[in-house]
Amino acid sequence: MEHTNSSVPRLLLAADRSSAGKTTIATGLMSVLSKEGHTVQPFKVGLDYIDTSYHSEVTGRFSRNLDGYLMDRHAIIETFYHAMRGADIGIIEGVRGLYEGLESLSDVGSTAQIAKMLNCPVILIIDARSITRSTAALVKGYSSFDRRIDIRGVILNKIGSLTHAAKAKKAIEHYTGIEVIGQVPRKDSMRLTMRHLGLVPASEGLKRDGNFRKQLDNIEDAIQSIDVDKVLQIAKGAGKLPRVKPKVFVSSKEGVGNKKRVRIGVACDEAFNFYYRDLFDLFSLNGTKIIPFSPLHDEEIPDVDGLYIGGGYPEIFADELERNSSMRDSIASHAQADLPVFAECGGLMYLTESLTYGGRSSKMVGVIPANADMANKRVIGYVAGTTVCNNVIGLKGTKFRGHEFHYSELTDLDNKPQFAFQLQKGTGISDGRDGIQVGQTLASFTHVHPLSYPNLAANFARSCAKFSDRTAHSKRSP
User: What pLDDT shows up at residue 423?
Assistant: First the structure.
């Protein structure tokens, strides 16, 4: 469906704080709307990989991330339109509290910033546990804090009883004039399984948890009190959204320089599933074919010109990864033969000599001369850096932004590792340095979002094309 400037139905689900129930309610609403016949395009504010997996599962469409620190207004709007192709409503799940961002005195990196960039109406989710009249004070404060934020409705979450809901609803509507459009009960059955980085990814839950599907059904049942017609009315009443000329999601005129279509193997299974769909779109626009493979279940890598091993939970599956020695040997031998390999966070950990978690050390691929240790050293935040040498995703002197979120660290580093990244913001692997480079392998704790570094896909595809051409030439040589 093509949208004109004034016909892009959309809304943003924000909250008064973290853990107020945004993902649960967003997933439930997306599921209900999808089953009613709407084509729902999901989005997530911030750089979360896991919440988006729930969105994608219930809508059948890949959820997209929107981040005001990594992406400028043009990129936010372009990404929104690119994702909305074929959809009739966009639902954006916020991050943390509505106004939480990078700084105390600006809304950079916040849910509020995205609401303003997309001129998007907001439904505010309130954690109403143990409060009634005070909910009105919360809503009044949030609605008056920034008058450019258009709060059109309120959903009360974690309600203890009908009396509790009635009191809070009456107070909010009396003191603020904003309608309460739903009251979601407090139920243990709605809780999604958590671990150290957040929720368990939907793909893992579906494969490994026999009750996971039932949990999703419980969430859908629990949000039946939300007035879905009112939700649609709010979305259809969104203000105008200007068109922008595409700058990122455009086909490459130069291609990647080789005569055949580049094939990139991407690690996709329960252990590795932290990826931004936008990057795969950019790979496709650069003439690249993505070949999924599983470090857990496959015996060796497929016939490809490069590997991309994203983040995930290799520590949870360390025993299985260790037992699959044929896959580890396959990756190691190809990396030693200079197959381009790009790895992020969990991928970095998998490429080390060993991974220690819960007192047990498991053997990993052995390409990176270090050991990974889950030391409960929490590192989270934005990253800004510069490449200090040529590498498989760019040339020396390239500036980039990204983020890091991990509990691991590298130990027993080689005396003089070659780092490709110098960080001006962030922690990295060691003293603000990140991106260990070994031959044509690049592995970092930094996750790079493609809209903060739009040449990543083309550059990596070009590195893979050069490898492919060299390999083809060597086979032809006597």
Answer: 97
Question: Alpha-carbon distance 400 to 136, whole Å?
Answer: 43
pTM of the model: 0.92
Residues, the chain:
478
Question: Tokens in use for 88?
Answer: 């009739």
Contact (CB, 8 A) for 361 and 355: yes
Query: In sequence order, what are the beta bridge partners of 307?
Result: 265, 341
CB 282 within 8 Å of CB 450: yes
Angle (CA) 180-96-177 rounded to 5° is 20
- Residue 388 CB: number of other CB atoms within 10 A? 17
Residue type (1 letter), 442: L
The residues annotated with a catalytic role in the active site are 345
Question: Are 183 and 159 contacting, i.e. CB atoms less than 8 angstroms apart?
Answer: yes
Indicate whether 446 pLDDT > 70.
Answer: yes
20 touches 10 (CB < 8 A): no
As given in the structure block, the two tokens for residue 458 are 């083309």
Burial-class residue 222 by CB neighbours within 10 Å (0-12, 13-18, 19+): buried
Residue where the block lists tokens 């990756």: 331
In degrees, to the nearest 5, what angle opens at C-alpha 22 toward C-alphas 6 and 227? 60
pLDDT classification of 195: cutoffs 50, 70, 90:
very low
Task: Give residue 253's Cα distance to chain centre.
Answer: 28
- Give bridge partners of residue 194 from the DSSP assignment: 199
Burial of 429 (0-12, 13-18, 19+ CB in 10 A): buried
C-alpha gyration radius of the chain? 23
Q: Hey, which CATH number is domain 262-476, 3.40.640.10, 3.40.50.300, 3.40.50.880, 3.20.20.80?
A: 3.40.50.880
Average pLDDT, the chain: 91
Query: Which band of pLDDT confidence, cut at 50, 70 and 90, is reported for residue 255?
Result: low
| Backbone region of residue 435 per phi and psi (left: phi > 0; alpha: psi in -120 to 50; beta: other values) | left
CA-to-CA separations, 144 to 135, 138, 176, in angstroms, rounded: 14, 10, 10
Out of 3.40.718.10, 3.20.20.70, 3.40.50.720, 3.40.50.300, select the CATH number for domain 10-236: 3.40.50.300
